[in-house]
Amino acid sequence: MRLALAFLIALDAGAQVTAPLTPDVRAWKLPPISEFKLENGLTVDLLDDVRYPMVQVRLVFSGGSRRDPKDRPGLAAMVADTLGLGTSNETASQIQDNLGRSGGALSIKAAPDYIVLEGGAVPEGLPLLISVMSDLVRGAVFPEAELGVYAQGRRQAILRQVSRAGYAADQAFFATAFDGHPYSRMLSPIMAPATDTKVLIDYRTGLLTPANATLIAVGKLPARAQIEKLINDRFGVWQGTPVAAPEAVKISAPARRLLLIDRPGLPAAHIVIGKTGPTERDPEYCAMIVASMLANTRARNQNRSEMRIDVTTLDEASVLMALSQSATAKAAGFLADMISFLDSIGRDAIEPGALAEAKTAANSAVLMRLETQSGLADELAALKSRHAPLDFLDSYTARINAVSADQVREAAGKYLGTGNSIVVVEGDAARLQPELAKTGAFEIIKTK
Amino acid sequence: MKTLAGLAVFCGLAAAATAPEPELHIPFEKYKLANGMRVVLTRDTSLPISAVYLIFDAGARSDDKDHAGYAHLMSRLMFEGSANVKKGEYARSIQANGGTFNGGDHPDYADFSSVMPSNKLALALWLEADRMRNPEITEEKLKAAKEAIANERAALRNQPYREAMLDKWPQTVFADIRDSRPMLSGPGSIEGVTVAEAAKSFRTDYAPNNAVLVISGDFTVSDAKKLVDQNFGTIPAQPQPKRSDIVEPERTQGLHGEFADAHARFPAVIAGWPAPRRHTMDWYALQLLDALLTLGKGSKIEVELMRGRQSILQADENLGFPLATALDYRDPGYFAILLVHKATFTGAEIVRQYEDILESIANSGVDSVEGLRMRSAIRYDRALEAQTALGRARLLGIHEMIDGDAGFTDRDYAALMSITPQQLRGAISKYLTQSRADVLTIRPTAGASR
């Protein structure tokens, strides 16, 4: 009956009726990276890409929220947000005008492992862009008047952030997975209390120093002698004391915890299941990445489209999180299904076609980021902050392609299997708890 | 004196730019299949990524008065499954390989794209060819597509300024039904479309002779040609759809309207002018003006109205506003800007502030700093677009479809950079005059903020 209603256009017998078979992703290499150090300790990495008339510059500092003092969570984020508000030489408005003349833009952000100044410009704008960066890290003054305006906006942003459904679950997950480690505060929304100009200037002079920094320039760069001179001229006079390595804190082994974040009246339940995993320097890393890709595809294929598996890679660990949401009334069944699904990845056989797709997807995730100059510069900056070797990217595809089905299953069992995972449910506890109790004893956490 | 010095520098920059810009050259090879399908290949083997971009001469402005909404309906049906690829399988196949895809209709074309690691190029081409050759159009799928469109329209209607831009504005300023048709609340002529009618329309709109295929990125030319031939070569040609030119009457006076927006928190105005024809020097000059006014840090509107007079909160400007850009909008063109402003100013005051800027540029030109900023912003913006396989494919495909020659990709950019200050001033004086300005005043009716 359905065929009678259908209208198939121009069907011809010559057309291929099944998807074509394809090979693995081919090997590739980035252009060579040239690295040198200035006398003040600033590391410089240069990568020529002459295809397009632009340059991308990253000035990355090791640290980030990982170094936030316990009593001042959010300090690195605040430094990043306010570094561009003015220097001893330029107002914020003048800085913006200078950037406009360079043809590009500059943004500053803080991540758990680093603070980075990210700038782009047309090639002729490179000196101007580098000058602005140098001026900011050497002379940002964090003017009090501007800080007041910033703080007001920040408070609004924090309120929006914490009121987002699912945020409390993410926050509780990180706090539990990294209990006792500075990463546990990475989603803390609390603005550093009593932060004033002096605190921010002390942060700049103490941590944003040349010996703690790497300058990465990618794109249509000037001749080598010229750019070395340019960097020396702008950054050679930058002084700073060496920065001590952050205090080493051991990350606890994954252990089962069941947490229920009470948000009375929330109509849906937000679910996070996950644990910590290997770093890029660990041999299991590639198998874990392929396993996560495989899990995402299986979830889609099995109509679990609400669920996704995210991997966050940090310097000292990675984090695997299965995220989903469900109507409150169905949450317990949904959670049981998620657990069963995650446990099955490490147990069930992997079809060769599915493995090949997962490897292609694992490669694609990196390739898509590297396709743009800004993506490439961002990736190099992140790798630097995570102490990964510079040739990490060049060998990435070969390592992904070499992963076997057994290794993927083993990694899936270890990192997706839920036996020692943290399970966080955010929602209306009064309605959720009776049913969730069948999964185990959930600790209830009240929210403000 | 400052202005004269500025003009001199700007002239110098322009003169230097009249030669082709080798730094932004996008090489390509073009050929045609026996069924009339045009194929454009552009290689960059730096990374194993390739993009497939398929563009059809089947945009919303192709819909005649009896077929409003067909273009959108047809583009939705492309995602409803085909003979060998079940509904959802297209998306699944691409996502499982870490790829991305997109597709839909625009005022002057419909386009579909995917980006995947280049080992999957054969898969990407097969997926596109299968739905082009054998779309499975059923009562059930047609109904689903119509419902999805109705929901989409309802959702858009609930967003601030959307109804003003997509319904009221075209009705206020255009005469030809293909321009003036309200997009969200127009007559629902697709509601009664049958499977046979949809299939008939699909057959010609999505025929190979009405399409351009672009492959961009990592491939060998011989392999790509072989795959194109295998997948698309046997799709039969169809009678070419008839497209008559859109004609808007010459006007010497602007048109005005008002709109009460229940979803807007701040008042806004849309100001616009009929624009010069594509590829004329005035057309390039208005693109340059757009960059001067809105592109990048330190743009005129940011400096003078947002930071200076602190009257404007948001500005959105384009040749082809609101759904197209200079790149992808056929003649007759239109230049317009949406200015969302503080309630402490009237719409008339905001239009006056904007026209003051235009008048200042028309009278005095731009200084050297502004000239440099404008040129740098355009170059940077273009480089950002051209650096991805899909970005290059879009540029080539749209020029091939709309202008009949992918070579306009390089030529347009060179012409844009060759515009002199005199040409910029001349275009403003000729086209963007106060008397010809069309204005739609948008008044928030709920929760207005100051």
Task: Walk me through this protein's architecture.
The complex is a heterodimer of chains A (448) and B (450). With 448 residues, chain A is an alpha+beta fold. Chain A has helices at 2-5, 75-82, 92-102, 126-139, 144-163, 167-177, 197-207, 224-235, 285-301, 331-345, 352-370, 373-385, 396-401, 405-415, 429-436; strands at 7-8, 34-37, 43-48, 55-62, 105-110, 114-121, 213-219, 257-262, 268-277, 308-313, 318-327, 422-427, 443-446. Chain A has 15 helices and 13 strands. Residues 1-11 of chain A have low confidence and may be disordered. Chain B has 450 residues and is of the alpha+beta class. Chain B folds into 2 domains: 25-232, Metalloenzyme, LuxS/M16 peptidase-like (Cytochrome Bc1 Complex, Chain A, domain 1, 2-Layer Sandwich), CATH 3.30.830; 252-444, Metalloenzyme, LuxS/M16 peptidase-like (Cytochrome Bc1 Complex, Chain A, domain 1, 2-Layer Sandwich), CATH 3.30.830.10. In chain B, a hairpin with a 5-residue loop joins strand 1 (29-32) and strand 2 (38-43). Chains A and B meet through strand 1, helix 3, helix 9 and helix 11 of A and helix 3, strand 5, helix 4, strand 6 and helix 8 of B. Strand 1 (7-8) of chain A pairs antiparallel with strand 6 (136-137) of chain B.
Brief summary:
The complex is a heterodimer of chains A (448) and B (450). Chain A is of the alpha+beta class and 448 residues long. Chain A has 15 helices and 13 strands.
